[in-house]
Write a structure and sequence with these properties.
The chain is α/β, with parallel strands linked by helices. It contains 10 helices and 7 strands. The strands form 2 sheets. Strands 5-4-3-6-7 form a 5-stranded parallel β-sheet, sandwiched between helices.
């Protein structure tokens, strides 16, 4: 069954499986490394509609609200159109971006792809004068100590799209509450805001094309630009080392031949691939000011299903 055009990143690159490359909101939603089906989307709609406002980000700030905050990135390894990162940038004088690995194993090809994505994000942050902080272990163990070490007043992150990720995020949130660190996680990272899906869960179409047709008159919100300059990290803060593939993958999934077939991960490669694909499909530059055809932020809704197959 095809995936739906409602996610927050360029997901997927191996047939039947996917791992997020991390670019912008225009492809298929994934859950636990596989494309999400109509059943998954129905459950997500039920969750979104049934969950009250908690941990949400205030609409008005009145200047910088915090001194230092931590942005915990999980699958959203990109600077462009990253709502959690953008909100933290708007609301804090200093922000520290952290990725934690080693607790969530994956297939060898996905691990290779993830390592590329982490490396690319670090280079992007360094080009802005900042850095990506890397830690190995369980988030619920590392983040409380990290926030105490850095005197962080708030933690920003995406809660996740499946039960496993949401539970891990909620475990972290409970620890942060004990420390008095505020948590913000109610960020929409999908192409369509779930609030714009007006039909009931029972009427969710069973395939991507039918879903896209049902949503064709719904306005797609404009993507967010990457922060212009992220403040530098504290000088005495250990940056951490890049993970090896062995740190990310299941040992039994080692397959060198499959690794050689895995495209390069990372936002830089993803944006270049999207640009190549969109220009190749449209045969002309995207229309200026049209977010659905923006080369810098993803392909059109109509191309999304094709993009998911391309990768």
């Amino acid at each position: 069954m095809e995936g739906f055009v409602v996610n927050g990143g360029v997901d997927s690159i191996v047939k039947g499986h996917s791992s997020r490359t991390i670019s912008s909101r225009s492809l298929v939603v994934i859950s636990s490394g596989a494309r999400v089906t109509a059943i998954d989307l129905k459950k997500r709609l039920q969750s979104e509609r049934g969950r009250g406002p908690s941990g949400g980000f205030p609409k008005a700030f009145g200047g910088k609200k915090f001194g230092t905050v931590v942005v915990w990135l999980r699958d959203e390894l990109r600077l462009d159109d990253n709502v959690a990162l953008d909100r933290a940038y708007e609301d804090a004088t200093n922000l520290i971006v952290v990725v934690i690995y080693g607790h969530d194993r994956m297939q060898w090809r996905a691990a290779n792809f993830m390592r590329d994505s982490i490396s690319d994000l670090r280079q992007s942050l360094r080009s802005q004068g900042s850095d990506l902080i890397l830690r190995r272990g369980k988030p619920e163990d590392i983040l409380p100590e990290f926030c105490k070490q850095t005197n962080a007043e708030a933690l920003y992150y995406y809660r996740g799209k499946n039960q496993r990720k949401m539970k891990a995020a909620d475990d972290v949130g409970a620890k942060m509450e004990d420390l008095g660190v505020r948590c913000f996680y109610d960020f929409e990272d999908t192409l369509y805001d779930f609030k714009t899906i007006k039909f009931p869960e029972s009427e969710v179409p069973e395939d991507c094309h039918a879903f896209t047709e049902r949503m064709k008159d719904v306005e797609v919100p404009s993507p967010r630009q990457r922060p212009k300059r992220i403040p530098p990290c504290p000088r005495n803060l250990d940056r951490g080392i890049l993970p090896e593939i062995e740190d990310l993958a299941f040992p039994e999934s080692n397959n060198n031949s499959s690794v050689r077939k895995t495209p390069i991960g990372g936002e830089t490669t993803a944006l270049a691939r999207l640009k190549q694909f969109v220009l190749g499909k449209t045969k002309k530059p995207p229309l200026e000011g049209n977010p659905k055809l923006s080369v810098d932020t993803g392909a059109s809704v109509q191309c999304s299903a094709e993009l998911s197959r391309l990768y």
